[in-house]
Amino acid sequence: MADTADYAATFALVDTDGDGLICAQELASLMRNLGDQTTDEQATEVVRAMDSDGDERISLEEFASYMSRNQN
Q1: Where is the EF-hand domain (predicted)?
Q2: In this predicted model, what pLDDT tens digit does every residue of 14-72 receive, in sequence order?
Q3: How many CA atoms lie within 13 A of 13 on its CB side?
Q4: Contact at 8 Å (CB) between 57 and 25?
Q5: Considering its fold, how many domains does the chain have in total?
Q6: In sequence order, which residues have a C-beta less than 8 Å from that of residue 68 and are 6 or more positions away?
Q7: Which of 22, 35, 50, 63 has the largest count of CB atoms under 10 Å?
Q8: Which of left, alpha, beta for 67 (phi over 0: left; psi -120 to 50: alpha)?
C-alpha cells in the first residue's frame, strides 16, 4: 500500500469540498482551471480508473495507490 502522506497535499487540492473524496466534477473543475479542456466524460473515466471500490469517487488511499503504481 502506498504511503498516503506522499499524496495528501495533491489530493487536497482536488478535493475542493473537503469531504475526503474526489468526484468527477471536482477533477474536471481542477483540470479546466489549469487550462485543460477535460470533459465531464473524461473526468468520469479517470475516476473509474482510480476507483477500486466502485463508489464513483476516489479516496486518498485509492489516489495514493494509483499514483504510486503509475510513477515513472
Answers
A1: 2-37, 38-72
A2: 999 999 999 999 999 999 999 999 999 999 999 999 999 999 999 999 999 999 988 75
A3: 7
A4: no
A5: 1
A6: 2, 3, 6, 7
A7: 22
A8: alpha
22 has which bridge partners?
58
Grid cell of 19 as nine digits: 469531504
Q: For residue 46, give its domain range.
A: 4-69
Q: Are the beta carbons of 47 and 22 closer than 8 angstroms?
A: yes
Q: What is the CATH number of the domain that holds 57?
A: 1.10.238.10
Q: Is 63 left (phi over 0), alpha (psi -120 to 50) or beta?
A: alpha
C-alpha cell at 51: 476507483
Please tell me the distance from the alpha carbon of residue 9 to that of residue 37, in angstroms, as a whole number: 24
The cell numbers describing 35, all together, are 487550462
